[in-house]
Every structure is written in C-alpha cells, then in structure tokens.
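Response to reviewer comment R2.3. The reviewers asked that we include at least one raw input/output pair. We reproduce the pair for SGNH hydrolase-type esterase domain-containing protein here without editing.
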Amino acid sequence: MRESIVCYGDSNTWGYNAEDESRFPEHIRWPGVLSSLVGEHYKVIEEGLSGRTSVMDDPLFEGLNGLMYITPCLKSHSPIKLVIIMLGTNDTKERFGLTSYNIAQGIMRVVEKAKHSLSGVNAESPNILVICPPRIGEKYRQSIVGDAMGDQCAEKSAQLGQYLKTMTEQAMVPYLDASSIPMNEVDYMHLTKEGHKQLAQLVFDKISELLKK
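Raw output as returned:
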C-alpha cells in the first residue's frame, strides 16, 4: 500500500487561477507536480480549500476554519506518512483583526491538532511540514480582491515568516519558507503556473529526508 502525503492548505493548494478564475489542471497544481516528483511509492492527497484560515470562523462564509476540519480530514486519509500545512494568507484579511504573530499562533494550533490526530503510520503522530506561504504582493490593494481583503494584508504576510520560523523551531517541527516565490500580477495573492512548479520543487527537496524516517 502506498503511503499518503496530505497537502492541507487554501486556494494556493486548491490551484486557483486568477487569470480566468478557474482551477489549474492537476499536473500544474503544486501537489500534482509533487506527486510526479515523489514517485509511485507515495499518494499525494490535495486538501486545498479556497478561503481556508488557520483558526478563524469567517463571518461571511462558513466551513473555512482549518482547525475544525484537520482531525476528520487526517483520520479519513490515515495512515499518513506526512502532513504538509500551508495556511496564513487568508488570515491576513482585515476583518479578522489578527497580527502576524497571531496568525503564526493559529497555524501552530493546527499543527498541534494534527499531531494529536494519531493519523500517522501505526496510529502514531504523522510527520508534519509547515510552509510559510508566498507573500501577498503590495499591489493587491488596487486589484479586484483589494476591498474584500482590506488593509495591511501584504505587511502581515511579509512578517509572518519570522514568527512562524521561531515557533516551529521551538516545537521542533520542520519548516519551509516559500515566501520568496512570486505571486501573479493579477490579484498578487495567487501562484502562477511557474510558481506552482517552484513550490513543488522546494517541497520535494525539503521532504526527501523526512520521507526516509
């Protein structure tokens, strides 16, 4: 039986294409590219949801709280070799009123819940990799998503990595900083085709050692 790798994230894991508001094909999306890189011994499972937050209930759209869904999600896919968590972009929305530090705290709550899901091999805690997502571009405020996102999103996104790196180190959880991968020039908060490819390669390089454990 192939071991599972679960990619838990938001629209950048789902594969949102801002150019025409469609979904990138599976072979373009970063989990799909990762699947081709890891080979036939692993099953890469996409668990991306547009608008997903780490811990916040969105007052405008239901079902987007990542903390509430992580346990049933992982148990449904168990046994799991590795959980890759990339959240935080949606948490920057002005209506949530969170600081970058708060967003990092929320992501770590999801991490802890994933650990305690006991969805890993032999009902143990699964391996976990936390990714700091690519930064929201400063020009997002003048794009079509600007009013929905609100103010200060780019600033919060830029500051997230420093807090997330410290918190993952303290928790001894593997960490990958993907903040330097550029977003598109449409809404400045979603990956391009090339961005998906770059992210998949970064993840593969990072997890090669983790998968040997």
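The mean pLDDT is 96. The beta strands are 3-9, 16-17, 22-23, 42-48, 80-86, 127-132, 175-177. Further pairs are available on request from the corresponding author.
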